[in-house]
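Trying the structure run again after the queue cleared.
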Amino acid sequence: MFHVGGARSALYNWVIARNNGGRFVLRVEDTDAERNRPEWTEGILRALAAIGIDERDPTFEGPYFQSQNADRHREVALRLFTEQAAYYCDCTRSQVVERTGSEQRGYDGYCADRGLDFIPGRALRFRTPQDGVTTVVDLVRGETSFPNAAMEDFVIARGDGSPVFVLANVVDDVDQRVTHVIRGEEHLSNTPKQQLLWEALGATPPVWGHLPVIVNEKRQKLSKRRDKVALESYLAEGYLPEAMINYLMLLGWGPKDDVEVRPFAELAELFRIEEVTSSSAFFDVKKLAAINAGYIRALGPAEFVRACEPWLRAPAAPWRDDAFDHAVFAEVAELAQTRITVLSDITRNVDFLFLDEPAIDEVAWAKTMGESAAGLLADVHKRLTDVAWEADAIKEAISEVGTAHGLKLGKAQAPVRVAVTGRTVGLPLFESLQVLGRERVLARTGAALAKLA
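Done. C-alpha cells:
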C-alpha cells in the first residue's frame, strides 16, 4: 500500500529535482524485515510508475535498496565508536527505569564513560551533546530549535551490530549526496538526531522540508484503519493518474493565481516548496472526484474508450465477456463520458446494454412502480411497437402517453427507465432505448408488466 501522503511527498521531491536540474533518488528502506516484503515494494514501485515517477523520467534514479548497503552502515557505526562519537551500552530498559524512577524518562547516559567494547547484546548509542540546541532550518516551518539536553543518547546500532534506521538513512543520504529531504511532518522529531549524525560525519545537512499532515473531513489524521489512504485504491476505482497528480499537488500548496486544475507541467513550473503551508491539509474526496470528472470529460473519444476498457471486461464487468459489444459501447460512450465521476462508474451506466436482463434496483422499483405504473407502462409498450425507432420519436411517443395519463415527461419516463435499465438514473433514456433496440426494450417492458400483474 502506498499512502497518498507518501505519494504527495514523492511528487514534491520529484518537482524540486526537475526544477533544479537534480535527481529524484528512490531508495527502498528495507532493513526492517518484519515491515518489508517484496510484494509491498513492488506495489509501491507500480504506484509511483502510475503517476509518472520511474525510469521513464530522466530525473529518476534508483531504486536502491538500503539492505544492500549494510556493510557500509556497519563501517560508519564503527567509525563513530572509534572517534568516541558513540559508545556501547548493555543497559536494559528495566535497569534504566530503576535508576531514573520513571517509565517516561529516556536513557540516562549510564554507560557513556564505562568504556565498553562491543560484544553481542550491547547496543551502540550516539553521544548527544549535553548543552546547546540543534536548530533545524525547515523550508516549510522555518527554524525549529531542539534542546540537546532533552535528547537522550539514542541507539544507532542494535545488540547484534546491525545499524538502526536513523543511522542507515543518514549514511545513505550522505553517500548519495542528497541535498533536499522533503517528507511528512511526522518525521520532524527525528530530524535533530539525523542532523547531529550528518555533522558527526563531517557532512553538511540537507535542506529540510516537513509537509503538513493530511487529515480527513473530521480533521483527523488520515489512517489506513479508518480512511481510504492507498493511492492504488483510488487508481483501481478509476481515478485517472493525471487527476490524482493534480489533486495531490494541491494538498498544502496552490498556485498563486488560484487556477488549481491545470496540466502537471504547469503545476511543476509554478511550485515553490517555500509556499507550502504548515497547516494541516484536508483530503477532500468530493473535490478529488470533481477534478477527476473534469479530466475524464477532457479525454478524446478514443482515449475515453481505452480508459474504460479495464471495467468493460471480466472480472470488473457484471456481464459475460461474449455479451460485450464494442460497437454498441461506442454509440453511448460520449453520453456516458459526461456523466461519470470515476471510470468504475461506467459499468452501472451501461450494464443494461450487455446483460440479458436489467439488474433491478429494488428501491428504484418500489419508488416508481406504483398503482398507476402498470397502465402507463402498458400504453408505452403498445406505442413502442410501431414508432419510428430513433430517440426523438421515442421521446415524443412516451411524452404523449404521459400526457394522456396526466403526467409530465419526467414522471412518465421513470417507470420506463426502471423497467428497461433497472435504475432511476443513468444515461439519457431515449438515446439508450434507441441503442438497446426495439425488440429488447419491448421484452423488458413486457417483463415489467408481468411482474406488476
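The longest helix spans residues 4-19. Worth checking whether this holds up in the mutant runs.
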